[in-house]
Amino acid sequence: MDKAERKLALTHEQLMSIEKPARYTGGEPNSVMKDSWRLRFAMCFPDVYEIGMSHLGQQILYGLMNSYEDVWCERVFSPWTDLDALMRREHIPLFALESQDPLKDFDFIGLTLQYEMCYVNILQILELSGLALRAADREDSDPVIIGGGPCVFNTEPIADFFDIFYIGEGESCYRELFDLYLKCRDEGLSKREFLIKATAIEGMYVPCLYDVEYDEKGRLKAMYPNTPGVPEKVRKTIVKDLDGVYYPTAPVVPFIQAAQDRAVLEVMRGCIRGCRFCQAGQIYKPVRRRSPETLLRYARELIDNTGYDVISLSSLSTSDYPELKELLEGLISFCSERKINISLPSLRIDAFSLDVMNKVQDVKKNSLTFAPEAGSPRMRNVINKGLAKEDILNGAELAFRGGWNRVKLYFMLGLPGEEEEDIRAIAELCNDIAMLYYDTVPKEERKGRVNITASSSFFVPKPFTAFQWAPMDRKENFLEKAAFTKRCVREQLNQKSISYHYHDSGTTIIEGVLARGDRRLSAAIEAVYRKGAVFDAWTETFSYERWIEAFEETGTDYGDYIYRERPADELFPWDYLDCGVTKAYLYREWQRAKEAVVTPNCRDRCAGCGCTGYGVGICVGK
Amino acid sequence: MSVSARIKFGRRGPVRYLGHLDMMRYFQRCVMKCSLEAVYSEGFHPHQLLSFAYPLGVSMETDGDYADLVMKDGADAGKVKEALNSVMHEGIYVREVRILGEGTLNAMASVAAADYELFVSAEEGLQEAASRILAEKELFTAGDGKKKPKDIRPGILELRAEGSRLFMKLLSGSALNVRPADVFEGMKTYLPEESKCTLIRRLEIYGTKDGKYVPLIEM
User: Fold this and answer.
1) Which among B13, B29, B198 is the nearest to A307, CB-wise?
2) Smallest Cβ distance to A6: which of B14, B29, B33?
3) Would you call A337 an interface residue with chain B, using a CB distance cutoff of 8 Å?
4) A365-470+479-503 has which fold?
5) Which range of residues forms the domain containing residue B184?
6) ipTM at complex level
């Protein structure tokens, strides 16, 4: 097909009346056009193009599905508010970027759920597509709505809007699901019959096939399959061998500047660290990695296929990649020859990493980042963040000697068991780092003042973490704590070198509710959407008050989801899901957190989380 | 030693909605993809020495726009064209490449005039409007809070209608730069109210040589 002849869903005048029309015109390098297919899949990222195109997971599934001859996978992003208004006004149905065809014509609409604050955008996509919001109200001829991504580890607040949730890693079971779908379609089976059969595939959760009951206090009492043959538990599906699985070495390269405009090498999945607040650390277990040879081959292919001038290493903790030195040596030699920069996020700051950064990065001596997450050593034990103050100070000292003079620090406020002294310790740590600079760098070598930026977010307990039982701080406490942190910073000797920022507390509360809420929340989500909520992840469009009104109107006791410590025997809405780590392990970790006892990382000693059941990766010594 | 390759390119179809910076990024990536022997700048962040003659506005098509790329000595025009076209797609394509002689003014500094083709929704009154504009001594742009109205009439070198299309040769560059949309805006006074321009296509960019307008590829 001649791409220059490609049709567009929007007219010239419509395109010229909105911001960044190239968000909606498709046709980027490596995007896939097809003339024939048996199954069409619309892969939606419910946020703007620039955010969605930066997401590796979508590139993986897009490439994988298009590698199937009988499947055409296309991309969809949330239309920004300007196009949203235009589409409603002129009755234009939401379309996919490649074919520019309406979403209603597709067999599947897949929505990736990367953060809770995108939930209202799911409804925007469904409504603009001309589909009923709730699965129960949709027709057999409507596309199958399937959700995936990290938020499926508590599907229940959005369960009513979806037909299926795919729990786990997309590479493993989509082919099986498509084969089943095509077979059911050929046999003329109903959507419901297809969905029941789909539950036999690992990782497939069909919410309408489960009933829930609540007790007199309104808390979850039971959840069970309502249809024969449907399993009680849904097990997360994973990729067994990362070296053998599909990898997108020819990802779609956006024309317009995306948030992360670079080639990405996914080094590892999972994390050995076991930080108690971190959901990613648990749900992506067990730890698996790609070999340096595979990664170096991918790096060359990526550059040849994309023309990017930056390669970024991606994982939850790249410093824990055992062959890091070997990988970086290979990358450095290839990249310096091709004039390519290497970007190394999530790398612990030590002599090795500083040396590497000196070699590979566009060294304007940009700021260095530390994520102590908590200010005091006791609090860091509570969250199991094995980062000692000495490690931070040693790293900072090396960096200062190496010519850096800007340091960024990330903290959380509102962690379980937090005391005033823990918060004060945030300010003191910042001050100590500033002092270290003046002690380390002689006056004549200083380029102005050292610049320390501390940011704090407010802690949100997430499912499948040790803190899933923990209460969340109240909104007013968050603000008081932020104000207190600010006061403490101002009391420091080097306060002029420290700047402090904190995140919005309203967003945090809503995120907390959506993270650990249950099926009844769908009423509130629909209500807030009807009041005009869209792009909640953006401060310019988010409204806390609108959410509180929606909770009130739908009789949602939102505080019950977040403010109380949940008892040991409480049934969680996500308990039907087996993600590898057991509830018993997480509860042990919750108790150890209360005693501020550290648990060793899983390379040093197995903590018995339950993931050995998968029999892969680090659990079997790989 | 290095040489400059002058690249004449076209852009048609849906890619016309890209902005100028998007086009620059796209070209840089194409150069990277086909491993052209580009010369990089010195310094911490080496980048290609690639410059465009004249930014293409969002939604404008072109049959004759230009970019100069500094390359290692010995670059072959035919091979550069072939290599770039092997990695380009979607209606952006290289039409011609020429290795410039030493001392040739760069493309951006050379721009003196450009030809345009405008697609108009209706044929009615188009020729008449063109004649009227040409008959006038001055034509002021509307201007807004930031920009003062300016007289663009001296910069309209040619203007004629062919069916529902308009052809214009307009002065470009630092002295007086005339945008085709402004000329059409001025013509609207004499056109039916619903008349709209649906597509602007640049046809050629000229420099001056011996007092004549010459396409940049021949400079």
Assistant:
1) B29
2) B14
3) no
4) Transcription Regulator spoIIAA (3.30.750)
5) 113-218
6) 0.93
